[in-house]
């Protein structure tokens, strides 16, 4: 079995592509079920956030697994294979495990050390277990990765300063308006990012906050808890005429704020300054909105520029976490090699006991006068001989697993003992 990862990543893929290769919550069950039907996919999980879409799979054939994933993505998103190959990065082997530890620890995030990703990775594993697409390998990796990420954050305090995308959005607003406490804000959409944006605005001293949500009752419940206003999304244009800051984080499939709409709004505002921050993927605000006089627009790709101020301590913590990851990789490698050794040991025992059984049967045929007691004695002692002969080879396999050399020696071991037929039967 082999580990394989497909990644559409913020570092290498523009947002225009990322937002088109993204699995929404409503798509997840269909996606998990569909990918699991492909012949080379033995286990898998899918992680899809505003910054990445990644598939982690256990496959029985690397090239076949890659072809399966490309076909799956084509079926889901209608991209040509040529286009997919342009943006989809594939990684195999231990590098996949390494990436997953880094990912869950926040070392691969736009905001180094952010904590939201731990929950997103955990949720992906839970969905895999719910939809029965994970097995021994990914279930073990799940336990190790989540526990490691939690311990790493506690040990290094890498996430002590909250710096999620929603935090950075508010930091950006604070740098844009020196007197932010006197400003008003509207948050469009109250998913996780929207709620965090509200909390960060309140922490920054902004009290005049309105949230707009498609589901009004859900919005009202949160608004009452936060002591802010809640209005239906239908009054968006009316609210935009009054506020100073707009943060959008909906899951809408289309743009909710357009250039034409904002021209009218800004005319009504007499072009009073308006800061728009779009943290949604797919984006909520047309990029052309920034051409309207009085509007400053940022989207998720722009927010990276704000990260640099508070990064040195996080980088030092990340180096410590990276060192610890190397130990985890060794531990997981030993576990997987032990896992790989189990079928080899079973094949060895099967082969030797097949030989013992055939030999005993031949002896019984040639000496039919043997009593029942004599037959049992012969059976017992020949099995004992087999066990004694196998003791050292099995011990050697376990030693190689502990030393991390079994993967290199596995084929030689199979050849020496002639186990190919038995291994083929097990496949």
CATH architecture of the largest domain, by name, is 2-Layer Sandwich
> CATH homologous superfamily of the largest domain, by name?
Glutamyl-tRNA reductase, N-terminal domain
Q: Estimate the global geometry from the Cα principal axes.
A: elongated
- What is the number of beta strands? 10
**Overall residue-averaged pLDDT value:** 91
Report low-confidence residues grouped into runs of 5 or more.
Answer: none
Span between termini: 11 Å
Pathway: Porphyrin-containing compound metabolism; protoporphyrin-IX biosynthesis; 5-aminolevulinate from L-glutamyl-tRNA(Glu): step 1/2
Family: Belongs to the glutamyl-tRNA reductase family.
Domain Quinate/shikimate 5-dehydrogenase/glutamyl-tRNA reductase: 171-306
EC number: 1.2.1.70
Please describe what this structure looks like:
Helices cover 56% and strands 13% of the residues. It is α/β, with parallel strands linked by helices and 427 residues long. The chain has three domains: 2-160, Beta Polymerase, domain 2, CATH 3.30.460.30; 165-306, 3-Layer(aba) Sandwich (Rossmann fold); 352-426, no CATH class. Helix 7 (136-156) packs antiparallel against helix 13, helix 13 runs antiparallel to helix 14 and helix 13 (312-366) runs parallel beside helix 15 (406-417). The model has no long low-confidence stretch (mean pLDDT 91).
Summary tags:
Rossmann fold; 4-stranded antiparallel beta sheet; 3 domains; 10 strands; 6-stranded parallel beta sheet; 16 helices; 427 residues; elongated; alpha/beta; Beta Polymerase, domain 2
